[in-house]
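Hi W.,

Here's what went into the run:
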Amino acid sequence: MKRYRLLAVSGLGLAAVLVGLLVFGNLNQNLVYYMTPREALAQRSDYPDGRRFQLGGLVEKGSVQKTSDGLTFAVATTAQPGGRTVAVRFDGAPAQLFQAGIGVVLEGSWKGNAFVSDTMKVKHDENYRPPAQAGDRS
Amino acid sequence: MTLFGRRLPIATALVTAIAIAAATLAPPDQLQGELQRLMYVHVPTAWVAYLSFAVTLAASVAWLWRRTPRFDRIAASSAEAGVFFTGLAIALGSVWGKPTWGVWWTWDPRVVTTAVMFFVYVGYLALRQATPDPLARARRSAVFGVVAFVQVPIVHMSVVWWRALHQPPTVLKPGAPTIDGRMLTALLISVLAFSLFYLVVLRARVRLAVRTEEVEAALAERDQEPAGNAVLAPQWEKKGLRADV
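Here's what came out:
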């Protein structure tokens, strides 16, 4: 009984340390799911041409253009215009919900000043609303 | 006492019918269109998974406090339901993810933490199977049931703490829900329907556990050897001794 209690207490302690590490430890650098355009540009030297990573941001309005085997567009960190953007060349068929203004997470690598990607995931937000009726566009 | 009862299944069926009607009548989403209706099954399964593990936590604490076998049965039954609903939430999320995100699976924090939660509670069920002694089983799984619950807040907050593909919470967050009123109504009725279904399943499972224990006790009693069986009659013949003198 006593030995078992020791085991349970140490198990709890270990769990607490792990949780603390996850919450407060600076593991975010390694656990990061994607980099924003701002971070990708800042760490450009760490990612030479061909080294793959995930780039996430919003598709800049008015930047989407069709090419022979895919798309080109620009990805911005925020919706506000004027921020730094990354030019993206995407080879392949875009995801179903792809459109200007939507969030995307792209897998690929740098090629010069452009980010070349072959895998796209669409990130939709947590807001749900019915389609805008004619006359009440917001 | 029937396994499923009478009134609760009828109430569940009624609320489920209303939930289906509400989910059908709610408007489609501006961006996702009809795909957004998957929310009315995906979100309630995830919610019921949280609820199941919360009940396991409460019953485990109650067992450690009172040592009543009933709480152990509730904790175990609820964990079984929780594992089922977690698996269902992952599967339905996958179905929703393919057309919206574009992938069935990705190493997104929310998806990964949910999968970890699934496997840890599978471990809880394995621990129960691996411990034959009822008292030791109840004690160990009660401690496990309390510690494992730490994952529920981690799963819920994963989309806020880490950068994720999965969108942050719509309803369970500070501030007003960012969803159309009719959609929210349909979602809440669906959550109620799934919660009632969980109660039906939980109650049936607890009753089944009671009967299993009764059957096991009866079998143990039947198989028990009669008293005095271990005492052997003296076998004089084998030793070459005559028994008749």
